[in-house]
Amino acid sequence: xxxxxxxxxxxxxxxxxxxxxxxxxxxxxxxxxxxxxxxxxxxxxxxxxxxxxxxxxxxxxxxxxxxxxxxxxxxxxxxxxxxxxxxxxxxxxxxxxxxxxxxxxxxxxxxxxxxxxxxxxxxxxxxxxxxxxxxxxxxxxxx
Length: 143
Description:
By secondary structure, the protein is an alpha+beta fold. It has helices spanning 16-24, 31-35, 65-69, 95-99, 128-131, and strands spanning 3-6, 45-48, 53-56, 75-77, 83-85, 106-107, 113-114, 138-141. It has 2 domains: 1-57 and 116-143, Alpha-Beta Plaits (2-Layer Sandwich); 60-115, Alpha-Beta Plaits.
């Protein structure tokens, strides 16, 4: 299965991946209108300090703890290996946030949990964070 990998040696900490992610998941066709005067809630996050920065996103684990711990059954692993959230089932209990060893889940603007779903439901081809990274620090490949 293809996954998103980050090479922290090349990450500039520019946050463009966050903006591209938020736009790709906004459902709108114009980035300026989608993100103007809005608090963005990307499914990938830049972490780090002055010396090193890196992107944090879902690793789509082989045996995901988040799926096992979800009390409402909102999280599931598909046949393609991607871990997804059914927004209609999520009760915002935050259990998935507590058990994820990578810190990949977060509450969205509406309180419903969100995480990287590899842009599989979007028409981007590759994840938007990969397409929007100016330094090619984010890679979408099978290893």
